[in-house]
Write a structure and sequence with these properties.
The chain is built from 4 helices and 2 strands, in the order αβαβαα. With 111 residues, the chain is mainly α.
Protein backbone atom coordinates (compact mmCIF):
# COMPACT_ATOMS: atom_id res chain seq x y z
CA UNK A 1 0.00 0.00 0.00
CA UNK A 2 1.32 3.43 -0.91
CA UNK A 3 0.36 6.70 0.78
CA UNK A 4 1.44 8.93 -2.08
CA UNK A 5 -1.54 10.12 -4.13
CA UNK A 6 -1.29 8.80 -7.66
CA UNK A 7 -1.86 11.00 -10.69
CA UNK A 8 -5.42 9.81 -11.26
CA UNK A 9 -6.55 10.50 -7.68
CA UNK A 10 -4.72 13.83 -7.55
CA UNK A 11 -6.26 14.91 -10.86
CA UNK A 12 -9.79 14.05 -9.70
CA UNK A 13 -9.27 15.82 -6.38
CA UNK A 14 -7.96 18.99 -7.99
CA UNK A 15 -10.64 19.04 -10.69
CA UNK A 16 -13.31 18.77 -8.02
CA UNK A 17 -11.74 21.49 -5.86
CA UNK A 18 -11.23 23.83 -8.80
CA UNK A 19 -14.76 23.42 -10.18
CA UNK A 20 -16.54 24.77 -7.10
CA UNK A 21 -16.52 28.54 -6.54
CA UNK A 22 -18.07 30.23 -3.55
CA UNK A 23 -19.94 33.46 -4.16
CA UNK A 24 -17.83 35.69 -1.90
CA UNK A 25 -19.39 38.91 -3.20
CA UNK A 26 -22.58 38.13 -1.24
CA UNK A 27 -20.69 38.28 2.06
CA UNK A 28 -21.20 41.66 3.70
CA UNK A 29 -19.74 41.07 7.16
CA UNK A 30 -16.05 41.13 8.05
CA UNK A 31 -14.37 37.79 7.42
CA UNK A 32 -11.28 36.06 8.75
CA UNK A 33 -9.54 33.71 6.31
CA UNK A 34 -6.92 31.39 7.77
CA UNK A 35 -4.36 29.67 5.57
CA UNK A 36 -1.45 27.37 6.36
CA UNK A 37 1.95 27.61 4.72
CA UNK A 38 1.84 23.88 4.00
CA UNK A 39 -1.17 21.92 2.79
CA UNK A 40 0.34 18.44 3.27
CA UNK A 41 3.15 16.94 5.29
CA UNK A 42 4.83 13.92 3.72
CA UNK A 43 3.82 10.66 5.42
CA UNK A 44 7.44 9.52 5.43
CA UNK A 45 10.91 11.01 5.68
CA UNK A 46 12.54 9.20 2.79
CA UNK A 47 13.94 11.57 0.17
CA UNK A 48 11.72 10.38 -2.68
CA UNK A 49 8.48 10.91 -0.72
CA UNK A 50 9.61 14.28 0.64
CA UNK A 51 10.52 15.44 -2.88
CA UNK A 52 7.14 14.35 -4.28
CA UNK A 53 5.29 16.30 -1.61
CA UNK A 54 7.60 19.32 -1.93
CA UNK A 55 7.02 19.33 -5.69
CA UNK A 56 3.25 19.13 -5.19
CA UNK A 57 3.37 22.05 -2.70
CA UNK A 58 5.54 24.22 -4.96
CA UNK A 59 3.86 23.49 -8.28
CA UNK A 60 0.22 22.86 -7.41
CA UNK A 61 -0.75 23.88 -3.89
CA UNK A 62 1.16 27.18 -3.54
CA UNK A 63 -0.19 28.65 -6.83
CA UNK A 64 -3.71 27.45 -5.92
CA UNK A 65 -3.41 29.00 -2.43
CA UNK A 66 -2.17 32.32 -3.82
CA UNK A 67 -4.98 32.37 -6.38
CA UNK A 68 -7.47 31.77 -3.57
CA UNK A 69 -5.97 34.55 -1.44
CA UNK A 70 -6.04 36.97 -4.37
CA UNK A 71 -9.64 36.06 -5.11
CA UNK A 72 -10.93 36.64 -1.59
CA UNK A 73 -8.96 39.89 -1.35
CA UNK A 74 -10.70 41.15 -4.46
CA UNK A 75 -14.20 39.81 -3.72
CA UNK A 76 -14.59 40.19 0.05
CA UNK A 77 -15.10 43.76 1.17
CA UNK A 78 -13.74 43.36 4.71
CA UNK A 79 -11.35 40.43 4.85
CA UNK A 80 -8.47 39.74 7.21
CA UNK A 81 -6.07 37.07 6.00
CA UNK A 82 -3.95 35.18 8.50
CA UNK A 83 -1.26 32.73 7.44
CA UNK A 84 -0.42 30.15 10.08
CA UNK A 85 3.21 29.00 9.82
CA UNK A 86 2.88 25.67 11.66
CA UNK A 87 0.60 22.86 10.59
CA UNK A 88 -1.35 21.78 7.55
CA UNK A 89 -4.98 22.28 6.62
CA UNK A 90 -5.86 19.37 8.92
CA UNK A 91 -3.32 19.72 11.74
CA UNK A 92 -3.19 23.50 12.28
CA UNK A 93 -5.83 23.43 15.01
CA UNK A 94 -3.63 21.07 17.04
CA UNK A 95 -0.20 22.50 16.19
CA UNK A 96 -1.08 26.21 16.21
CA UNK A 97 -3.89 26.36 18.76
CA UNK A 98 -2.64 29.45 20.61
CA UNK A 99 -1.96 31.41 17.42
CA UNK A 100 -5.41 30.55 16.08
CA UNK A 101 -7.08 31.65 19.32
CA UNK A 102 -5.05 34.87 19.31
CA UNK A 103 -5.95 35.52 15.64
CA UNK A 104 -9.67 34.94 16.21
CA UNK A 105 -9.75 37.04 19.37
CA UNK A 106 -7.88 39.86 17.64
CA UNK A 107 -10.26 39.70 14.67
CA UNK A 108 -13.40 39.67 16.82
CA UNK A 109 -12.24 42.41 19.17
CA UNK A 110 -11.05 44.71 16.38
CA UNK A 111 -12.88 48.03 16.46
Amino acid sequence: MTTIPNNHVSKLLLESAMSYHRDYEKIQSPALAIYTKSFFYPPGIDEETVNIYRNMEENIINPWRQCSINRIKSELKKVTIKEIPCGTHTSLIFLSRDLIIESINSFLLKK
